[in-house]
Design a protein that fits this description.
Elements: E1 6-8, E2 19-20, E3 22-25, E4 32-34, E5 38-39, H1 41-55, H2 60-89, E6 93-95, E7 102-104, E8 108-109, E9 114-115, H3 116-133, E10 166-168, E11 175-177
Antiparallel strand pairs: 1-3, 2-5, 3-4, 6-7, 8-9, 10-11
Length: about 190
């Protein structure tokens, strides 16, 4: 799977300092690493010719032609440089199966195969479900008001729908998971 956690910090393909470089980052903490700068020689030559042609009016057409030549090959060269940079950065990042974010080694829990945040959530979620469903009366507790329930679909205290796994946003109507605190479409807070 190709990494998507990068920024393109390459320089212009028709400049004296033309080259390709990419910055990869952890989507959790922001820690970053840069690929090695890979010079683009066609672009550098074009940059020098443009500077040289500036002094001589007759060489202006040649400068524009070499600029087009450098830009035409630039996208292929950039793609090759990106593939090489991704291959070098791939061992530094893992994709969390819980939140689907690219995570650096500092935020990764190799024993669970998820990031540290998702590991903590699953651990606390297991403890919360044990507390919610393991009360003294043997029934489930309402996740909204924590009142013990003797069964049924709705809580007898607050009317919460205990069987649903999703909820609708009252502002725009989109369906969200029950745990959502804000709507992903309109930002309405629950």
């Amino acid at each position: 799977m190709a990494l998507t956690n990068y920024r393109d910090i390459s320089t212009s393909v028709s400049d004296v300092s033309a080259g390709f470089q990419f910055e990869f980052f952890c989507e959790k903490c922001g820690e970053s690493s840069r690929s090695a700068f890979k010079p683009y020689r066609k672009g550098q030559i074009t940059g020098w010719l443009s500077r040289f042609a500036f002094m001589f009016h007759d060489l202006g057409k040649a400068s524009r032609a070499t600029g087009a030549f450098a830009e035409a090959g630039g996208s292929g060269a950039k793609g090759d440089a990106l593939a090489e940079a991704m291959a070098a950065a791939a061992p530094l990042y893992e994709r969390c199966t819980g939140c689907r974010k690219w995570t650096g080694r500092e935020c990764w829990n190799s024993s669970s195969g998820t990031c540290k945040d998702c590991t903590a959530k699953s651990t606390s979620g297991a403890a919360a479900s044990t507390a919610a469903y393991g009360n003294a009366s043997g029934g489930a507790a309402c996740p909204n008001c924590q009142t013990a329930s003797e069964g049924g679909r709705f809580c007898h205290e607050c009317g919460f729908d205990m069987a649903s796994t999703h909820k609708s946003c009252p502002a725009c109507g989109i369906t969200l998971s029950r745990q959502a605190r804000f709507c992903t479409d309109c930002g309405h807070g629950f």
